[in-house]
Write a structure and sequence with these properties.
The chain is 68% helix and 3% strand. By secondary structure, the chain is mainly alpha-helical. It has one domain: MetI-like fold (Orthogonal Bundle). The protein has a two-stranded antiparallel ribbon. Helix 4 packs antiparallel against helix 7. The longest helix has 34 residues.
């Protein structure tokens, strides 16, 4: 005999998902703000990029002329190339240092690990402007702190931010310093999440640190590394404050990054549609390279 099943109470079906309307209502402010401050400005920027426009006259439609001028501007192409060089200077070193520091943190006692995590995170909360001033003092020629240390070893003073051969690398150092803290802590969290049984089994098989890193740590951190690679690429290519304050883009434009180029054009070019077109091209470059990274580096979850 089939047991009787109680009929659902009246109104239960309607109360099954009581939080749906509340959830949608809570999302509305975020959607409205996103539309006002992100979606609409992007649409309007695209519109203005096809116009000859300034603050003193109405927009005049010019088609793709702004984009054509930007792509034929050797200063823009040089800024983009310089931006990619800056990415290569910053991101790989930051990832390697962050990974080594994360391994150090997970291998020491809990109390010492707390001290290390706090100390590495301190630069993250420092403003880029303050960091620029600090490193300008360090690099100052001829009486900066770095040159004073080199003088102790009989090495002549170097114009670190006044020499085109050294200026971009000199700016890369504070960029690494500012980004290392967050990168390290994210890697610490990723390493802690790796099951300890994997390392124990590898130790029983006689694996050394390099083998554990190559066959356990890095594969298990694959998605985290992909995230840090893309965010590091985007942040480095969009670097603006450090070259603006430390060098102003010089000497001889050797530290003019893409964003600084756009900023300079916006200040000096009467046609505001030109820097807007340049900014949208940088946006396309960022999106394209990020998509290629996702494509080349498979981000599927590692199967235990």
């Amino acid at each position: 005999m089939t047991p009787a099943v109680d009929a659902p109470a009246p109104g239960r079906a309607k109360r099954r998902y009581p939080d749906t309307k509340v959830g949608l209502l809570m999302v509305v402010p975020a959607v409205v703000l996103l539309g006002i401050f992100v979606i609409w400005p992007v649409i309007y920027a695209i519109y203005l990029s096809f116009h000859n426009w300034s603050f003193y006259k109405d927009p005049v439609f010019v088609g793709i002329r702004n984009y054509s001028f930007v792509l034929r501007d050797p200063l823009f192409l040089a800024a983009v190339r310089r931006g990619f060089i800056f990415v290569l200077m910053v991101v790989p070193i930051m990832l390697v240092l962050g990974f080594l520091f994360a391994n150090l943190v997970v291998s020491v006692s809990r109390r010492l690990a707390g001290v290390l995590k706090v100390s590495i995170y301190v630069p993250t909360i420092i403003s880029s402007v303050i960091a620029s001033v600090i490193f300008w003092i360090i690099y100052n020629f001829p009486g900066g702190l770095l040159n004073a240390i080199l003088a102790l070893f009989g090495i002549k003073a170097v114009a670190w931010i006044g020499n085109p051969a050294w200026a971009l690398a000199a700016i890369a150092v504070p960029a690494i310093w500012l980004g290392l803290g967050l990168t390290s802590l994210i890697m610490v969290a990723a390493l802690v999440d790796v099951p300890a049984e994997f390392y124990e089994a590898a130790s029983m098989e006689g694996a050394n640190w390099w083998q554990k890193t190559l066959y356990i740590s890095l594969p298990q951190m694959k998605n985290i590394l992909l995230y840090l690679l893309i965010t590091g690429f985007v942040a480095a290519l969009q670097q603006f404050e450090l070259p603006l304050i430390m060098t102003g883009g010089g000497p001889v434009s050797s530290t003019t990054t893409p964003n600084l180029y756009i900023f300079n054009q916006f200040r000096t070019n009467m046609n505001a549609g030109y820097p807007i077109a340049a900014a949208l091209l940088i946006f396309v470059i960022l999106g394209t390279v990020s998509a290629l990274m996702f494509r080349v580096i498979n981000s599927e979850k590692v199967v235990d």
